[in-house]
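User: Quick sanity check before I run a bigger batch. Here is a single chain. Can you write out its predicted 3D structure?
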Amino acid sequence: MVDASAPSRAGRVSLPERTRSPWWELTRRLLLALSILVGTVALVWFDRDGYVDNSDPANRVSLIDALYYTTVTLSTTGYGDIAPASDTARLVNAFVITPARIAFLVLLIGTTLEVLASQGREQFRISRWRKSMGHHVVVIGYGTKGRSAVETLVSSGQDRESVVVVDPGATALAEAHADGLAVVTGDATRRDVLRRAGVADADQVIITTNRDDSNVLAILTVRQLNPDVYIVSSAREHENAPLMKQSGANSVITSSDAVGRLLGVSSISPTLGSVMEDLLSYGEGLEVAERDLLVSEVGKQPQSLPDQVIAVVRDEKVYRYFDPVVTQLARGDRLVVVRPARELPWAPRPGTHDEELASDDD
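Assistant: Done. Predicted structure follows.
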């Protein structure tokens, strides 16, 4: 069923709201109002020679006169046929009647002003957000897979402000905002929607919709807008994975096959299943990570390193640790290792203690 309101929301950028205490907002507005009042009083007082007081025979304006003039002017009341003449009456008018009058005006038109201010503030935030976008990650589809992908990125050090979600659903919009993410509402197969998400300047795009045909169309559109972006896509069916790679995806993860294998492994060996689940989870137990090669590790065999090396990346190709091509590690290699998720005294992470890296530039 198509949402009737979808066309009006298509391509709309929506940023997560910044929640603050109501008392903080009230105090902030009162301080702003007080600063305007004090500033205006000071302006009138310093220019008092340009004002006259018809109730004063000498036509002199005192500080109390300046305060009175400011309060009746800012409250848009003007001058009536009855005007306070004594200092006491003017002080009462300035500190009691005028605040009550302003409170009434706020209650009367406050809602309209709040809506206008919110719209202007939202447009300003979106404009500032667009200027700061670049080298970010676009996540198309914010279901279970998309949300897990974002949490993994954030846990690995990715800033939430550099992640943009594209999804047409209201539920995804609410969940992404609750997670502190910016959202572009709309169909990811449309170019204008992806342009609003800044796909042309993104470093990575993760595609996790629930339909393989939508994934293929999204891949084609993304690749057309940004030929150099790294695209990772999910596939529900294994036979659709080659089509997604031909469409331009750099990596395709078949969700049904991965879940099926994990279920099969767990049924054959519950212990092995728990280890596999541990490797797929982030932050506890074991993790699979990619790291640079250290200078002290050049020329060594992968099996001799403290980390459990399972693959070596050389010249953009991945070799298993037992492949004869990587019998000796060389400068520029990167290692795929299994290690503790947290650095422990008995298993310090190489490269985190100012060790020299063996990059090609050294």
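The longest strand covers residues 286-292.

User: Great, the batch can go ahead then.
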